[in-house]
Amino acid sequence: MTVFASTVTSEQAVAAFAPQVKGRTFVITGAGQPSIGSSIAIELAKASPAHLLIASRTAENVHPVIAAIREQDPSVKTTFIQLDLSNHDSVRRAAQEILAATKSKIDVLINSAGNMALKKYTLDKQGIEMQMSVNHVGHFLLTNLLTPALLTGAKSPYGARVINLTSVGYQISPVRFDDVSFCDGKTYDMWTGYGQAKTAQILFAYGLTDRLKNRGVVAFACHPGSNLDTKLGSHLVMDDYSDVLPTTKRNTGQEFSFTVGDEPRFKTYEQIGATPLIAALDPDLAGRGPAYLQNGEVVEPVARHAVYDKGGVDRCWRLSEELVGQKFEY
């Protein structure tokens, strides 16, 4: 695996793995401007991908991203498909449109859409708590529906990859298997909801790789880094973050750790896409999945509930199937 400095930028990551970008098809969720997904898409365009498809909820937020890609390299095919991850009808429709647009061949799927620390207990159309819905369940359904295209992409020399953008927030809570809905909101805590959703994304990466690695599809979960330029936490004030440490201790008995190694506490907007891009592109990682990446490298999660455990991984898969009302067996 190529070793990068802790300050590596998205541009540097793409330049290092340009052959793994050229001529390939990338699907990215939630790449409205400004976001981690939009940063990733614009940087990928510099290395001549065949097709960049952005699936996002709001077209007007994606149009500037597509315009920037076209200005950079008009030869790169770009597609926008409307996707509301909190609405399973929308996810199923979008999946069919993505399969058609990509001619059922996807090399890399980057699940970057998400929300964080919703102050009010909110349910999606299906009755699922909204953080669990958007961060994990919608992506679980979408990814499985796109698996035929990923399996086609897996036949190429570099195989196929799925990248789940999680967060160090996974430390806050394990998946609440016995009460994923917080007693219908009566015991809801915004940081616990965020933590369980981010843990689920890690367990999903493990579970998907368990099922598809022998067919060339490998999944990784990664923390891109903390950043204040995106709109993810725009509804929060600094005082809201003071609850993270005590909530983590209460839920897990462990202390919260913001960084690993020499990782800076905050990444710049130019750096925020680097770790997901390394996870998506580094050919040396193919044999190391499933894995969790932080600060540009594979590390073991510091929270016990996010370390690979087949029982927990399979339990999360079954819960996810129940929430989407469909079984996925490979």
TrEMBL record:
UniProt keyword Cell wall biogenesis/degradation, yes or no: no
Keyword annotations from UniProtKB, A to Z: Oxidoreductase
The UniProt record lists the keyword Aminoacyl-tRNA synthetase: no
N-terminal signal peptide: none
Homology family: Belongs to the short-chain dehydrogenases/reductases (SDR) family.
Name this polypeptide is given: Oxidoreductase
